[in-house]
Structure formats: C-alpha cells, structure tokens
Amino acid sequence: MKYGIVIFPGSNCDQDSFYGVSSVMGAEAEMIWHKDHHLGQYDCIILPGGFSYGDYLRAGSIARYSPIMQEVVAFANGGGLVLGICNGFQVLLEAKLLPGAMLQNKHVHFICKSVYIKTHHSNTPYTNALKEGDILEIPIAHMEGNYYCDNSTYQRLKDGGQILFSYCDAKGNSTDEANPNGSLRNIAGICNEKKNVLGLMPHPERALESMLGSEDGKRIFESIRSHC
Amino acid sequence: MEITKDLISAHNLTLEEYEKIKTILGREPSLTELGMYSVLWSEHCSYKSSKPLLQELPVVGEYILEGPGENAGVIDIGDGLAIVMKVESHNHPSAIEPYEGAATGVGGIIRDIITMGARPIALLNSLRFGNYKSPRTQYLLNGVVSGIAGYGNCVGVPTVGGETYFEDCYDGNPLVNVMCVGILETKNMVRAVAKGKGNPVIYAGSTTGRDGLGGAAFASKELNDQSEKDRPAVQVGDPFMEKLLIEACLEISQQDYLIGMQDMGAAGLTSSSSEMAGKGEGGMSLDLSAVPQRDKNLSPYEMMLSESQERMLLVVKSGYEDKAVEIFHKWGLKAAVIGSVEANALLTVKHKDEIVAEVPAKSLSNDAPVYNRPAKKPAYLDGLKSISDAITFGKANTDFNETLLKVLSSPTIGSKKSIYQQYDYMVGTNTVVLPGQSDAALMRIKGTQKGIALSIDGNSRYCYLNPFTGGQIAVAEAARNVVCVGAKPLAVTDGLNFGNPENPEVFWQFQQGVMGIKSACEALETPVVGGNVSLYNETNGTAIYPSPIIGMMGLMEDIDHRVTMGFKNADDVIFLLGDSLEELDGSEYLKVIHDMMGKECPRLDLGLEKEVQETCLSLINKRLLSSAHDLSEGGLAVALFESCITGDKGANIVIGATGLSDAALLFSESQSRILISVSPESLYEAITYLEYKEIPYQQIGMVTKGKSLKIDDLIDQPLESLEKSWKSLVL
Lengths: 228, 731
Known about the structure:
The complex is a heterodimer.
Chain A: E1 2-7, H1 14-24, E2 28-33, E3 44-47, H2 67-77, E4 81-85, H3 87-94, E5 101-103, E6 111-119, E7 135-142, E8 146-148, H4 151-159, E9 163-168, E10 187-191, E11 197-200, H5 218-227
Parallel strand pairs in A: 1-2, 1-3, 3-4, 4-11
Antiparallel strand pairs in A: 5-8, 6-7, 6-9, 9-10, 10-11
Chain B: H1 5-10, H2 15-25, H3 31-40, H4 43-46, H5 51-54, E1 64-66, E2 73-78, E3 81-89, H6 91-96, H7 98-115, E4 119-129, H8 135-155, E5 159-166, E6 175-185, E7 200-205, H9 215-218, H10 239-253, E8 258-263, H11 268-279, E9 283-287, H12 300-305, E10 311-316, H13 321-330, E11 334-342, E12 346-351, E13 354-360, H14 361-365, H15 380-383, H16 387-390, H17 400-408, H18 417-420, E14 431-433, E15 441-444, E16 451-457, H19 460-465, H20 467-485, E17 488-497, H21 504-524, E18 528-534, E19 538-539, E20 542-543, E21 547-556, E22 573-577, H22 588-594, H23 606-621, E23 627-630, H24 635-647, E24 650-653, H25 662-667, E25 674-678, H26 683-693, E26 697-704, E27 708-711, E28 715-718, H27 719-726
Parallel strand pairs in B: 4-5, 9-12, 17-18, 24-27
Antiparallel strand pairs in B: 1-2, 2-3, 3-6, 4-6, 7-10, 7-11, 8-10, 9-11, 12-13, 14-15, 15-16, 16-21, 17-21, 19-20, 22-25, 22-26, 23-25, 24-26, 27-28
Helix pairs in contact in B: 7-8, 7-10, 8-10, 10-13, 17-27, 20-21, 20-23
C-alpha cells in the first residue's frame, strides 16, 4: 500500500503524516510537490494540515488552484482515496470534492487540544476497522474548523451516511460542551457520496503512538490498509 | 546632507560616539554611514553596556559545541545530533503593537535557529504583563498571545512551554521573550561567515521595504508617551514566507557549496553583511540596486537599515550561485546575487554605480564603544519592610480555605490553559509531555530513545528584592523544572531584561543579576550558550523589576523514564524533598492576600539545590517515582493542588508540628524543594535511597481516590471548587 502526501507551500503536517503512515503504520509513502502535473501510482492521497499559501484569502482557497489539485480531483473522481486532514479538509471543500464550508471557530481563537469523536458508519474505506459508536481520542489544532452547510445538504449527508465522525464527550454524548469549534451538529468529518474522499478536522497522524497520548488514529489508517 | 548635532542625536548617538566614527573613517560619514553606525552601535546590537559583564558568564562545557558569538548556542546530544537554542526579547515592539511585535519576535528567533542549519522543533515564551485587570493589559495579553499563535502555528513549530506573570511594574512595558530550539546533524552546522575572496553574496527571502526602519535603535530607547509615534519601527511579519524560508534554508544547509548564512534581523542588511565579513575575509561589497525591493525609490539609507522580516544573507562557492538561487525560487522566494566577498576589510556599498558607504566592516560590529557603567546599590532596598515587622500570621481565625482559593485565582498562579490552547503544541509529533502536564516540556528525538526537556523561568519579584539571589534562583528553578520530568540539565540561554543601564541603580541590578546567574550556572554545570540583553525597559522614567529569564535544556537518555507532575494512583505516598523555611517575603501569597512585597528574597543554597536535583533525577532513573513537581510560586499548597488536578486525584496531607507559621507551611516559597509521590511497592527502595543521600525530606501524606485536598486541619476543599478559582484567567 502506498500513500502520496501533497506538499503545498505552507503545509506543516506533511512530514508528520509521512512519518506516521510510513514509520508507524509501515506503509510506503512519497511526497508530492504542489507544482507537479502528474500523479504517480498511489492507493491513497493525503492532503495534510497546515496553512497552505498562508491561508490568505480563506483557508484552502488558493491551494485548490495549484497544479496538482487538478490531478487529485481527477484521482478522486476516478474513485481513488483522498484523505484531507485539517487544512486538507478545507482544501477539499474549496475544491468542491466535499460539500459545505468552514467558518472560524465560534470562540474565534485558534484551538489545540485532544477531543473525542464518535464513529457513525463503519462501511467506508476509512472506518471499516471501527464499529458504529466507537469513540476515538484524537487532537485538533485549527482556527477554522466550524463546519457549516445548509439544511438540505445536511439532510443529504445524513441520509447518505456521509457524516463519519462527530465530536462527543468521553462517554459518546454529542453535547455542545464537547463541540470545540461550533460545527454544525458537532460534525468532525464527512465523506463524499462514493465514500472515497474523507475530510477530517482532527489529526489522526498525531494519535498513532501511546507516547504522544493516544493511538486511536491507527484505526483510521488500519481501515485504509484493509480497504486497499 | 550635512550631519548636524540634531541629526546625530536623532540617531541616538552621543557626540563622543560620533567623534569615534569620524576617527575610524578619517572623514565625516555620509548619511547612510551614520545610519549604519547608529544601528550597529545601538545597545541592542552592540551590547555596549553589557559586554564586560557578559564575559563573566561560563560559556564552555563538555557538551557545548558552540557558545555565544554565533546566532545560537549548539549543544551535543550524541548520535551525531546537536540541539541549537536561543532566547530573544521583543519587548518594545510588543508594547506598541502587541500582535506584530510578538509575531515578529517568534519569526526572528526561528531564523536564528535555521541560520545554524537546524530545523526548529520547539518554541517557548516568557511573558510579563502589568495589572491583569487593566484594559490595557487585556489588550496587550490578547494581542501578544494571538501574535505568537498566529506566527508559530503557521510556520509549524510547536509552542510547547512558557510562563506568564502579572506585576504592576510591567504596565507600560510588557516583556515578550521567545525561545526557539532546533535540532541539526552536527556535520551540517552552518556558520555566519563570509569566506573566500570573490565568492558571491546572495540575498534571499522577502523583499525589502520601509518597515521596521531603525527597529534596533528604537529598541534601545526608553518608552514614553510619544512612543506610539515610533510605530513604523515595528516590523510586520509573514509566517507563510518564514515557513518557505525554513524549508529553503534547510535544503541549502545540506549543500556543500554553502559557506555561510546569516539572517537579517535587527539592523537588517547592515548587521548581516558586516558580521559575516568580520568573521571571514574581512570585507564585502554590496550593490543595492540588485536587492529585491517592495517599495519604489528606496534610498540606500533605508535599504541598509530596513528590518523587513524573513530575509537571509548567504555566501556560496563561486559558480554555485545559480543553484542556490534556484532552491529559493523553487520555494517561491526572491533570491539574487547582490555582492561578493572581498579581502580588503571594507564593507563597500554601491547604489546605482555610486559608492554610498565604505567603512571598515569590523568597525561596525567590533569597534562599538564599550561602557563600564557606574553601579550603585538602589536606595529602595533600604526602604523595604520585612513582613515580620508588619503583620502576624497564622491567627487562629484565619480561614486558609478562603486563602488558598484567593491565591489560586491570582492570574500568575492560575491555569494558563486559555493561553497555551491557542498554540499548536503538537505539530511535529514530538511533544511527549504537553503544556500543563509538568514543569518542563519534553520532546522526543525521533530515531533515538532520547528526549530533551525544556523550560523557561524567572521570578522578577525575587530579583527586585535581591537581584543576585533572584538570578541564581532563576537558573536553579529552570534546572529543577527540567529535572522534574527526568532530564539532566545541560545548558542555558538567558534573556536579560532590565531598565536603563545609564542609571547606576539599574546597572547595579544588572550586575548583580548577571553575577547571580554566573554562580548558579557554574554550580549546576549548565553553561550559557547564548542569549539576549534587553535594556531601557522603562516607561516615563520607571524601570521594570530586574527580569532575567532563563531558558534551560536538559537531556534524557531514555524517554521511557519520564514522569509528570500529576498524582497517578491512590495510596501512593507523598514526600517533600528539601527544607521548608519561614519564607513568605516576595511570595505570591503575600502579594495576593496582604498586598505586600516584603524584604528578603528566599534563600538559595546551591549545594543543597544540586543534591536535591541529583537525588530526584536518580529516583526517576531508578523508576521509583510516580510523579515529581517543583515547588515555586504559591508554595506547597499550590504545588499539591497542581499535582492533584493534573492527575485527577486527591491528597491527604498530615504534616504536624514544623515550627513554621501556618501561612508559611502552606505558602512559603523556600527553594530547592520537590514534591514527589511513590507507589507502595517502591517505597522501601525510595526511602533507602533518600536516607543514603542524606538530603532533607519529609513524608507528608497520601494520594487519595476522593477528589479533595486536605492539609492538616488547615485546608479541606473539593478539587472542583479549587479548580474553579484556578481557572480564572480567560482569554
């Protein structure tokens, strides 16, 4: 299994993702430069966290126009796995691979902490090693993670089983207190209709070793491995 | 342009200094030359008041590869790896423009690290603000914290630790000291040197504009009501550019053709070019017309003095200039050849084919006047009143539950979660001990079993009472912090923040503070590998408390041995290492409860300090401790609460008769004390070791399942209510 990790100017979780999927999870991985026009053979593309192009204008809005994104969109449309983490999620929204938009956190500040998320569906490439209702402890670190979409989009996401993760407390309750950024219905991660594109605000690559506080992120990469 | 007296004084130069410039040049300087001397001879760049004292500090040691003199100190950690670190202040800019002031402080110190060829892996900060309740403080606090967050988060360097104090003396002059730590393969270390006659000099990074013009000179003045007018002297940062610059510089650091590199920080192009020339062949010629510019019609004066951010100067082997430029272009950065290395000892600056400045390069960086300032013991010290003269403590009717709640609600003591939660402290996936978990942050070194512990510390109230002992304590406590996570303290970077050195009483504080640091660094064997001096921290004639800040790095051979401060298991036995004395002077308790300062700074016995630290470290390495936590502001009561709340456990403490007043038992800030907990299985071995080491220690109680803190018959409070008071600092 081989990951491709895109480096945009301003990406800052690219090396962490590389280390996580290769050194910890044991997969092959390669970095992909944002100016490339050709995508090699990969099983899963990761759009890593960071501040692509300084997040000037709007988080992820400029990255979506970089040359490699045309290739990533084509790869996704062909059914390839694309995982956007944090800023990568924002890029996926800007690229219209996922519906909705990201607003500033409700308290305006950047927020870095460990949160709990609940799994809602296990029939996807990203969750097949999880059970419905499984709770994962994974860190977040963002300024704009307040996911928003209109009612009809929300209904479609819900009916289509596309809301894969939502923020919850340690016991799995979806409360306002457990929602760190004010996102609609505590949404933390959604996938597209075909379930091959996942946008996730929490950072699973930061939760792969007990030394760092949690290994729960492994479950997501194990799912990807067993799918591929 | 004629150089008038007014022009000289507007450049913050004395007439004597101007005469010295004339002697060096053998003629009147041009305006550009006057500007160049004025910034490099400013206190900020030249250390003209502090140099003689700084030479007293111990700078060499077993692990030290590079001490002061380069952009940052370098410490060997084995396996071909080295740690690079430095602290820097951005006090004056942050007082005027908190967001940009703090942000560019972060940017500047990161560049000092990448200049050495190291990848930055951690940031820490030490912040000092005035009265927490004043609207101005709220504005500055919010601005500084978001500035640090905005810059550090974007460049992808985790902010893993820090400290924040509130004290009225900082009302007009907050302190923002930022420390950056990097890692490099020793073989790739880069120096700021311009060697090899004819080798090209390359400018790289952002374009040059008018921002931050004369920032170094501004930083060397006292602040006053007119300082707002100096706002143009505050630089504006672009963390996105910095991130690109980090990657590009690290890429070029791996190349054999790189000869030297220097960032353009204070005094921009002038300092970087003269310093690199001074350390190499001695000379350099620059053509300013080739400098990438963002403003039209920049004069040579402006270009030489601009402090536009995110810029570097490099020297590469002749013939490799295109390759070097290509790396920067790949990262979307400007880069151009703007000059060459010369062997004539002159810094020659051309603009549009005209020579606009030609001065001996070393005269800028090495020949600045050095002042042996007069020192005088401050008069205020004689007016200080010992608390024993003033009030009686431990009256029978004192409700110490109330007292503890009040002490915990002091913003200096309280939880800093609403600050550190705004920082990405995890990016890099190396932060093993997170903010709030221990007295020091712990970073793993990927590919090894090692870790480095980092702390930054300083108590300026102690330094106000006794700058010598206060300086010693800053070092001792920073080392103790590092020990409490399980690392051996190796090296120090210091941030020396004081008032106007031309005032003999302030200079006395500075002298005493530095000598205190020297004695503690010698005793604890932690050399000073570099740092920063910030003087003229005064507002309208009132100086800040003397505020030396100590950044400490410690090495842990096996990261699996780490401990944190939280209590782990009910029935673990709690011990207090060290001696508790009747020392409430200068304490947070005294300030919060009695609004008093007192007279004496807590005593420090460096011999005992060292023994306590070594004993604690040995206990950790023998894996006998469940937790370890340094006692500092707020004393035993606050330390116990912190270990309880961090571990989500209670504690039942029975101390009995000690000869101390109740207030001192709870809140004394006696030094060299560590709170540890030991599991019942490890108890015998731990006690045996403590007895063998013959250090003072006391068994004081047990960790409990019940979520409350009980101390003799003085305190009995549920953690929940204590926590509420402790969380009063909200941003």
